[in-house]
Amino acid sequence: MSRESSKGLAVADKGLSRRDFMIGVGTAGGGLAISVAVGTGLGLHTTDAQAVAEQGEISAWVYIRPDDTVLIRIVRAESGQGTLTGLAQLVAEELECDWVRVNVEYPTPSESLARNRPWGSFTTVGSRSIRDSQDYLRRGGAVARTLLVQAAARAWGVPIEECTVHRGVITHTPSNRKTVYGRVAYAASLLTPPKPESIQLKEPKNWKLLGQRMLRLDTFLKTNGGQDYATDLNFKDIYHAAIKVCPVAGGRVKRFEPKEAQERPGVQRVLRIGNNAVAVVANSWWRAQSALDQMSIEWDVGPNANVQQSDIEARLRAALADMPTSTVHHHGGAPAAVVKDIHETERRVDAVYSYPAQHHATMEPMSATARWTRTGCIVWAPTQDAEAALAAVAAVAELPIDKCEFHRLVPGGSFGRRAYHDVIVQAVQIARNLPGSVIKLAWSREEDMLHGPIHPPSMARLSASLSRTGAPRGLHLRIAGSPITLPRNPYDPPNAFAQQRAFYMGLLPEPTALPDPSAFDVKDSAKDGKTPVAPDAAPVAPTPSATPIPVPPPQSAAPTTAQEPPAEPPKKGGFFSFLFGGKKESPAETPAPPQAPVSAATASAETPAAPAQTPVPAAPAQASNIDASQVAAPLPRTTGPVTAAQASALLTRNDSACGYRFDQLLIDHVQRDLHVPTGWWRGAHLNPNTFYLESFIDEIAAATSQDPLGLRRTLLAGNPRRLAVLEAVARQVGWGKPAPAGVHRGLAQVMGMGSYLAACAEVSVSQEASTKGRLKIHRFVVAIDCGHAVNPQQIEAQIESSLAFGLSAALYGKISFQNGAVQQQNLDRYHVLRLADMPPVQTLVMPSGGFWGGVSEPATALAAPALCNAIFAATGKRIRELPLNNQLST
Prior knowledge:
By secondary structure, the chain is α+β, with helices and mostly antiparallel strands. It contains 24 helices and 26 strands. The strands form 7 sheets. The chain has a 7-stranded mixed beta sheet with strand order 9-10-7-17-14-15-16. The protein is globular, with a radius of gyration of 28 Å. The two termini are 55 Å apart.
């Protein structure tokens, strides 16, 4: 929405709510909006829509002005990934409008609620925006086109079948009469729309906009400096706020001295926010932050202050030998039988890998602007889910949701960070202390690094059994780590299935990778009445500088530990009932309870501080009006061989998979929670899991003297999409032919976010004494099959962006903890990739059709394994721990 309309919302406390305003304007204008079903229980009822639609609105998605300008409404968040343009292309393709006349607008979540959610989900996560909404967006455009052509045909008194449309110009073919959309828009808005499902959508071969290299709609302002971001938002008489939260998660404010800060120039208020934060409000942010920095604050840091980085790493490593918290997949025998076969084979390859904690480090730190009165609350902020943000605003403001408004602003980076609304909650809490004033809260970079949701660290132990000829036969992959959805605060949206799903991203087998179960004598351990026994921690593979070789089986099994207690059932109620109506109870299984922090001094579990008494959000049930991608049954703990149908179901929920075919496969997980809140990060667990698996495939190739490409071809037999992208990359780089002098290559492939990708890195590592170990990345070649390619130009841009993000993590990224707090509190210690270090990237877009895959995240996962496999080819040194930092120079 425009800023002018946003300013108008600030008078809500004078008796005119945004909803009242929309209904009044809509009733005066007349018109008709169209019901387009967008998932279970979502849709716009025509009788409700008549009260709020505007003149010129052909559907909820399309508004056409008399000057023939086409306004397309988009609700998914644009964070630099090109979603805005791609979604507009979907509507415009079926609308048959002139692309140069297209503008876009963000409806607010309040408008959506007032109209019974015609736009469906506002959620923008997991590379899902286009693939989740492509069908109803295209149908929304098709319905609008049908009404416009029908209005012209009625005006001419001719059959609609005799009319055609091209770039917004309607032509009566026999008489060659013409008109444009803007002239018939009002008449079209008065017609009864057809059912969206009754309209035949275009075949891909007839697409005119989809599949074309269209320029982005948001580029101009971002390149000429005209784009306003959240930090740029300004109002007359605005107050600025700075905040400090206890640097250790779970800590509290013990005492603080506000007097000196209150006496500083420009300071309005010093506030205690909740039980763990202090905020200063002033007439400029610098004055607020300076007063805060000078203030004496004493923290009760709590038991988490005992947590050290060495504790975390030791706990993860020890977990690799513990009983699994869950076993998501096995075939080739019951879990105990697979463990025995793999770990007691005569020839085996073992390795332990680790992936560090990561931070989003968005270019723009968190900020939000809020105004609260007793009768209304309005917030301006970036978010990846505007509906959830509105629900959080209403809950914190303690107001009915129809008395609140949320306006989404353009973010300076998201990467999953802005799916969490902690800064929005704080802004409203501060605004409640200054009723009627506009409060702009901005985090410092240090605050952002200390309290952003952390992508948790993990470790993995991989063991592969080999046949007598050296062919890989079985694989056991155990991961130890934390979920990426540990709660941050009670105002974040629930995600009933993500905790279990995320552990296994990129590891579940595709149906084509499953062997025939009848080939094995399967014994179900549950039927045998035996509990699967955790094997000995697999011996660490040879030293990094040595070529890995098969190792003999262990001589004895280590004693097992007791299994963790079952998870507590999900709690009911919470703020989401404002948005989705009533209390919901999720059928999903929750993860095991968090582990108590461990004292470095005593190595014993300590009792954590009691949490603050705050409402707990309900987990939405599948039947509620929520995006279907947000709710699914938990992944099963299997007790027998997985069939192709079961694997398909797992893959549907997981949308990322392992395509390698092993006769025996066991994938399990040992949950060890981090002491700080965790969250989504670009690519989520697909990144570490792909690093583990693709690096280990290269280890197997080296141990058995096989070509890495040849081994992948063998293990991916029967998987044409994976092989196609892998072969395309190999051809492009000339795999099998001599590389330039000193240049070495590394491969990796992945199926992630519904798309198939492969990559090859070309690197050189200096051996000169003065520059020994200096790494140069010469280029990356990436191939992607995302099914239907909406905008190849944007796909290429996202591949490059993802690689930059992944390379930053692989080369430099690591969040570590000292005394429970994040050590990397600014970008001088959490480095990101510089422009000069970014290699050239060649992207091969290979749409095979038939499905819709995501593109903004999966290539992130290819950066580390392709890079590290190339480094091994150059140096013989296997990188099993990230980041690289100075590993090559030592």
